[in-house]
Amino acid sequence: MKFALFSLMMNLPNAVTGEALTAQQKFHNILEQARLAERLGFDAYGIGERHGAPFLSSSPPVVLTAVAAATSRIRLLTTVTVLSVLDPVRVAEDYATLDQLSGGRLEMIIGKGNDPRHYPLFGIREEEQWVSLGERYELLKRLWTEENVTWQGTYRPPLHDVTTWPRPLQQSIPIWHGSASSTLSTELAAKYGEPLFSSNSFHPQAKYKALIDHYRERLDYYGHDANRAVIGSGAGSLYLANTREEAIRRYTPYYNAFHATAAAQHNQSPFTDLEDNIARGPVLIGSPEQVIVKIMDYHAAFGHQVLSISVDGLSHSEQLEQVERFAQDVAPVLRRELPNSVWNDPPVLSRQIPSPASHSSATWPSAISPTFQI
Q1: CA 149 to CA 173: how far, in whole Å?
Q2: Is residue 99 assigned to a domain?
Q3: Of 2, 46, 201, 220, which is least surrounded by CB within 10 A?
Q4: What distance in Å separates the CA atoms of residue 76 and residue 182, rounded to the nearest whole number?
Q5: How far apart are CA 134 and CA 211, in angstroms?
Q6: Residue 52's domain spans which residues?
């Protein structure tokens, strides 16, 4: 199994100490977290997109560019890019720039988002979200793969003979499709034969398994090989301790603080409290051995190759502690027990460029096996 650490950059007063960080302090902490993730061997680091308190993640390409400058190896994810409300021309330009500056480390997860506050901000109705996402994604793909694009649709002015610049550094920026609540997202992923990323955050396993199963069925329908499906999964919150009881005691104030926010309540999670979520839901709270067993159980249901975790909401010191403990006590077991080939190869770049590490005449490989094959 491969691992991504991600953040929605939630900036609430600490539920235990009451400490409140400034926005600048939170941005600084995110960069420290990303550097630590790279040192500890995580495969990817992700920034989500939200447009409203308590989240500071309204501009993922800007934050990920700073992360790219602070790191050298780790892949950069968007978790997710809310493409249902964004101009594909702007997205194509911003993220191609990030791909260039990061040395081709970008992978994008697209979705319609799960916070309804962004729809009035960007001028569409919530009931349009799926149609909007499909149209905008079709245009984004054309802008990244074609030149002199002529296009007409509903959600932006027509284009005539347009080529966006810069072009991505990668031959093809890998696109994952975020999945949380509807078969419309799994249908879109299957249609294009592209990887799926299940949010797996707020509901019992069966809800997300049904969406993943639908994705595999529709892959076959569209002529792709479902046996080669690439799937990622979120995991709710993470808190490791020596015992289950200690983990519950230490994490409960954070859990209650987050689930009191409007953003969390919008998801209508069915769990009555933290212990119910541990028993029936996706949160990873307990000893390392208990968390490993739970992840293995979810893998048996989902068949996913990538797991993303988040430590949002904890104190900064606890975030670093939890990330380090996961890397030392959990990840090695899962890497050994659940190996796969996702992210084994370097990104496939569109042309030869000087190696940023050596600044010599060495070049990146110009023909490497694709990162994803479905």
Answers
A1: 18
A2: yes
A3: 220
A4: 26
A5: 18
A6: 2-337
**Residue whose pair of structure tokens reads 């994604």 in the numeric block:** 137
Classify residue 306 as exposed, middle or buried by CB count within 10 Å of its CB (0-12, 13-18, 19+).
buried
pLDDT of residue 363: 33
pLDDT at 367: 30
- Answer whether 105's CB lies under 8 Å from 75's CB: yes
CB 64, CB 109: distance < 8 Å: no
Q: Positive or negative, the Cα torsion across 296, 300, 305, 307?
A: negative
Q: Tell me, yes or no, whether 189 lies in a domain.
A: yes
Please tell me the total count of domains within the chain.
Answer: 1
Q: Which of these ranges, 10-19, 244-253, 283-292, has the smallest mean pLDDT?
A: 10-19
Identify the CA nearest to 1 among candidates 44, 62, 63: 44
Q: Is residue 177 part of a domain?
A: yes
- DSSP 8-class letter at 317: H
Residue 329, domain CATH: 3.20.20.30
As a whole number of Å, the end-to-end CA separation of the chain is 18
Percent of the chain with pLDDT over 90: 83
CA distance 311 to 88: 31
Q: Is residue 371 part of a domain?
A: no
Q: Could you tell me the CA-to-CA distances from 230 to 5, 58, 177, 225, 359 in Å, in that order?
A: 18, 28, 11, 11, 35
| Per-position b or e across 21-60, b if 16+ CB within 10 A of its CB | beeeebbebbeebbbbbbebebbbbbbbbbbeebbbbeeb
Asked if residue 121 lies in contact with residue 58, where contact means CB atoms within 8 angstroms, the answer is no
